[in-house]
């Protein structure tokens, strides 16, 4: 059987990655519809050797569509998800619009695939930092429940979009030529700099990006009592996020056992060579499906805590790959109808 798929937001960084994945994973496609804003309609995108036209999204865009992969921002998802569902499509939404909606499963296929079964037309893709962290923490949490997570993120420019990736390059070359770095898409100069994530601040003193890691992780793990805190930072890296994670358990968790578990965990490539100081790096995570995890060590300040380090491609497993894997899960389990 093959499926009629629409990409909503086909021209963005994630949309481009979705196309590459659908092509290279040999996804069972009957046909592909590319939807974007009116600004992009009329342009074409090459897919499997053919030039596919981009259409501006309308009420009839979802006729006969089985699966919508949406990555065009929360506003567009809120406007069009209901229309797509009415036409019996399943929407896999990369925006934050529906992630905390009780009726919408929030899914990382390697972590909580079973939750996808209860969808009522929409399945939400978690935020990139949450996908990467839950992929690494879940295999340990399954063996010994995590009590508390302390996360610090080092987030690539790609999280701010394709234009931000270009801007950090422009800023870097400007500085190297002795000129000041100008921030237009980014809130501040990112070249040779970093800054706390500029998502809206809340009255808790946490930005929305940090609260996403807290609230989304609890939903994915199905455990509201896990204590989580996060500090999210934008760093001058192009497309892979890095995260330093501290995990607290009820009782000590052997670093050796944690290494064994993570070395076999799905979606993870374990990278840890103490002799050569080779550990996960963004340049080695970029473009890969797997999230690189390493530097597992006993927290010397607390007998029941472990430290770990990860790097994962923000556009791929952090967004597009996870969404395509959800679509593959629905097809494999025959969970498309709603
Ligand atoms: C960021 N997670 O990196 C957000 C966007 N996907 O800014």
What does this structure look like?
With 338 residues, this protein is α/β, with parallel strands linked by helices. The protein is globular. The protein has eight helices and 14 strands. Helix 3 packs across helix 8. Helix content is 30%, strand content 25%. The strands form two sheets. The chain has a seven-stranded mixed sheet with strand order 3-4-2-1-5-6-7, sandwiched between helices. Strands 9-10-8-11-14-13-12 form a seven-stranded mixed sheet. Bound molecules: 3-amino-D-alanine (2RA). 3-amino-D-alanine binds next to helix 3.
Bound molecules: 3-amino-D-alanine
Structural class: alpha/beta
Cα end-to-end separation: 18 Å
Shape: globular
Largest sheet: 7 strands, mixed
Radius of gyration: 20 Å
Helical amount: 25-40%
Spatial sequence of strands, sheet with the most strands: 3-4-2-1-5-6-7
Element order, helices and strands?
A: EHEEEEHEEHEHEHEEHEHEEH
The number of helices is 8
Strand segment tally: 14
Beta strand %: 25-35%
Low-pLDDT runs: none
Average residue pLDDT: 97
EC number: 1.2.1.11
Family: Belongs to the aspartate-semialdehyde dehydrogenase family.
Function: Catalyzes the NADPH-dependent formation of L-aspartate-semialdehyde (L-ASA) by the reductive dephosphorylation of L-aspartyl-4-phosphate.
Binding site for phosphate: 99
Summarize it:
The chain has eight helices and 14 strands.
């Amino acid at each position: 059987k093959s499926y009629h798929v629409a990409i909503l937001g086909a021209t963005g960084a994630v949309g481009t990655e979705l196309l590459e994945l659908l092509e290279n994973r040999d996804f069972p496609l009957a046909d592909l519809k590319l939807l974007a804003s009116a600004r992009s309609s009329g342009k074409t995108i090459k897919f499997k050797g053919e030039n596919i036209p981009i259409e501006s999204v309308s009420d009839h865009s979802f006729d006969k569509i089985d699966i919508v992969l949406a990555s065009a921002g929360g506003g567009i998802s809120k406007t069009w998800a209901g229309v797509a569902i009415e036409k019996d499509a399943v929407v896999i939404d990369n925006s934050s619009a529906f992630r905390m909606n009780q009726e919408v499963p929030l899914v990382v296929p390697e972590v909580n695939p079973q939750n996808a079964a209860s969808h009522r037309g929409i399945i939400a893709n978690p935020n990139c930092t949450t996908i990467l962290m839950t992929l690494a923490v879940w295999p340990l949490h399954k063996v010994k429940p995590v009590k508390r997570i302390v996360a610090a993120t080092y987030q690539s420019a790609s999280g701010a979009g394709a234009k931000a990736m270009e801007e950090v390059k422009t800023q870097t070359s400007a500085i190297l030529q002795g000129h000041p770095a100008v921030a237009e898409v980014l809130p501040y100069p990112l070249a040779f700099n970093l800054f706390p994530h500029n998502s809206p601040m809340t009255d808790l003193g946490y930005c929305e990006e940090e609260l996403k890691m807290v609230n989304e992780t609890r939903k994915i793990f199905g455990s509201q009592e896990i204590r989580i805190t996060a500090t999210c930072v934008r760093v001058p890296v192009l497309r892979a996020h890095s995260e330093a994670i501290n995990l607290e358990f009820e009782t000590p968790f052997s670093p050796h056992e944690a290494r064994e578990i993570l070395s076999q965990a799905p979606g993870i490539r374990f990278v840890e060579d103490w002799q050569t100081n080779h550990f996960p790096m963004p340049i080695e995570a970029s473009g890969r499906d797997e999230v690189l995890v390493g530097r597992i060590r006993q927290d010397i300040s607390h007998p029941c805590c472990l430290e770990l380090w990860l790097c994962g491609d923000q556009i791929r497993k952090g967004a597009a790959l996870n969404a395509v894997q959800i679509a593959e899960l629905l097809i494999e389990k025959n969970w498309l109808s709603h």
